[in-house]
Design goal:
The model has no long low-confidence stretch (mean pLDDT 78). This protein has a domain of 64 residues. It contains 5 helices and no strands. The chain is rod-shaped and about 130 Å long.
Length: 94
């Protein structure tokens, strides 16, 4: 019973006290601006980002890179036609 009386007196003392702006500011620094809990990512999210590439992914990347190289080579190439042979220009059957 003594314990309950002392806790009641402590509660009454706290109710009589007025809180100042400093009390609010001290609590706000600890929890952030609005006291919102910031979620932390789970371990499986981080593991997926760091995992090494599979053999198939590497092969696909190599194929795409080779295809890009071939396309660039075709774009760089300029077509040059050969001159018309003189035999074609001479009339044969008169």
């Amino acid at each position: 019973m003594i314990h309950s009386r002392s806790s009641r007196s402590v509660d009454q003392d706290l109710r009589k006290q007025r809180l100042s702006n400093n009390d609010y500011l001290n609590n706000r620094e600890k929890k952030g601006r609005y006291g919102v809990t910031v979620p932390k990512p789970f371990g499986f999210d981080i593991r997926d980002k760091v995992r090494p590439k599979t053999i198939r992914e590497r092969k696909v990347e190599n194929m795409v890179e080779a295809k890009k190289y071939e396309e660039e080579a075709l774009l760089r190439h300029t077509f040059r036609c050969k001159p018309i042979p003189a035999e074609v220009l001479q009339p044969r059957y008169h």
